[in-house]
């Protein structure tokens, strides 16, 4: 999906502009260090491409960009719950229209901040006041920070994920390490399992790793790079690939799409809405993922 040759609707600075793809307004960054694209629909990072490298972020060629559906690929913001704990699945943040709050540059690159606040529409789904800010820092690494603030006088529970789709050359030749030994296997009805220290895929996975290391490494021989994923503010790391059968069942993923993607997600996991992590009145919580491409 080429987002960098499209004409600008408006130019905000030397490095930041607004473009349009189908029904989406997208904040586009083109700097000396990297290029990136962030849709206002969902606060959704669609691309992060360091100079002279393939994109780090995977996007489905069949993604629906109608401004209504969740976008397949990229980095969906799953909030205020993760998974099917309520409707809509993965919460409403990934299908809401975010606002561009600010953009700025520093010695490390470009920072874009998007915002989403509660409305009557969100309160009909989830009856709480909130203020979300999404900071996307684009430079030698990609850092995404979801800042959740509770401006109300009542604590509320949440679960969440930065549902990152990583772009890989060939899923069968990618080695992942650092996810930890223990996981909940959603493909085995939530069975608690133990795995090896390294993972090379040959089938579908949907796993919630409950004791991930500080850094998860995705070694990609085809692209001659390792993607270092560092998460903060989380209690789990989710890894997912639907494999051929799962991909063919999705209208917004090509049948072979699974071959070039792997989800490694910074996650606040909870088995229910009520048991989610609490944010006290007036307090905030940050969920962060930082992805650093390391080339040979």
UniProtKB/TrEMBL annotation:
Keywords for this protein: Isomerase
Enzyme Commission number(s) from the entry: 5.1.3.15
Pfam family of the protein (one): Aldose_epim
InterPro entries: Aldose_1/G6P_1-epimerase (IPR008183), G6P_1-epimerase (IPR025532), Gal_mutarotase_sf_dom (IPR011013), GH-type_carb-bd (IPR014718)
Listed PANTHER family: APOSPORY-ASSOCIATED PROTEIN C-RELATED, GLUCOSE-6-PHOSPHATE 1-EPIMERASE
Similarity comment: family membership: Belongs to the glucose-6-phosphate 1-epimerase family.
Name assigned to this protein: Putative glucose-6-phosphate 1-epimerase
């Amino acid at each position: 999906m080429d987002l960098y040759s499209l004409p600008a609707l408006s130019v905000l600075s030397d490095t930041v502009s607004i473009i349009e793809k189908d029904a989406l307004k997208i904040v586009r960054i083109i700097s000396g260090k990297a290029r990136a694209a962030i849709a206002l629909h969902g606060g959704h990072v669609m691309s992060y491409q360091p100079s002279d490298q393939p994109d780090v972020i995977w996007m489905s060629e069949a993604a629906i960009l109608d401004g209504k559906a969740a976008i397949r690929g990229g980095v969906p913001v799953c909030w205020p719950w993760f998974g099917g704990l309520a409707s809509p699945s993965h919460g409403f943040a990934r299908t809401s229209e975010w606002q561009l709050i600010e953009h700025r540059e520093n010695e490390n690159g470009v920072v874009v901040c998007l915002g989403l606040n509660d409305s009557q529409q969100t309160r009909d789904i989830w009856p709480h006041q909130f203020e979300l800010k999404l900071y996307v820092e684009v430079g030698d690494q990609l850092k995404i920070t979801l800042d959740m603030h509770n401006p109300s006088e009542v604590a509320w529970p949440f679960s969440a994920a930065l549902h990152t789709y990583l772009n890989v050359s060939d899923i069968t030749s990618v080695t992942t390490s650092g996810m930890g030994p223990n996981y909940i296997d959603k493909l085995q009805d939530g069975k608690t399992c133990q795995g090896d220290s390294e993972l090379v895929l040959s089938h579908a996975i949907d796993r919630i790793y409950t004791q991930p290391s500080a850094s998860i490494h995705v070694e990609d021989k085809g692209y001659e790079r390792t993607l270092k994923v560092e998460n903060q503010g989380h209690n789990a790391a989710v890894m997912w690939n639907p494999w051929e059968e799962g991909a063919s069942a999705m209208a917004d993923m090509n049948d072979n799409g699974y071959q070039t993607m792997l989800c490694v997600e910074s996650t606040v996991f909870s088995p229910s809405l009520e048991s989610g992590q609490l944010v006290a009145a007036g307090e905030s919580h940050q969920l962060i993922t930082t992805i650093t491409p390391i080339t040979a």
